[in-house]
Amino acid sequence: MKPIDWKSVVEIVGIGALIVGLYFVYEELRQTSTIARANMSLEITRITIDLNAQERDPAFANILVRARTIPEELTPAERVQLNAYYSDVIEAYIREGYNFSLGVFPEWTSKIRRTAPMYFGSGYGRAYWNVFRTQPDVPSMFIDEVDRGLENLELVNYWRDFDNRICLLYTSDAADDSAL
Fold first, then answer.
1. pTM here?
2. CB 83 within 8 A of CB 128
3. DSSP letters along 28-80, please?
């Protein structure tokens, strides 16, 4: 029987331990990356929830309706509120774009094209966008995507008249209910 070459055994065990260690490092990095992506996605969700909470406030909802229909009647204080609101919307879009560039979100541009007309399609929102887009540090890809969304007149008109359509449905439903 041949004597065991302990040096070779130790080297093989060492290489095996190194491979196992590298695998654990890889798994840890992958999990950390997944957690970071989830946190970025949660941040966008938080911003969206905050925007929706603002819109649910009856006083602010009134301002939004007037901003779409009669923006010239907005007070300076209301314009300040709207500026902060639209700034939050743009911040959410830009964060989503950043996350898209990191591979967190599979798409970005279709959401902007679909929702930009809701925020910037008419009235004060359109005026806000026309001023905002001229800033030198706004990413051109972002400007292009919002502009493409605003070129969709069907969506612009849909969002401009959205509140009125709901009111008409609500009042006709209420009239149907009162007839019972």
1. 0.67
2. yes
3. HHHHHHHHHHHHHHHHHHHHHHHHHHHHHSHHHHHHHHHHHH-GGG--HHHHH
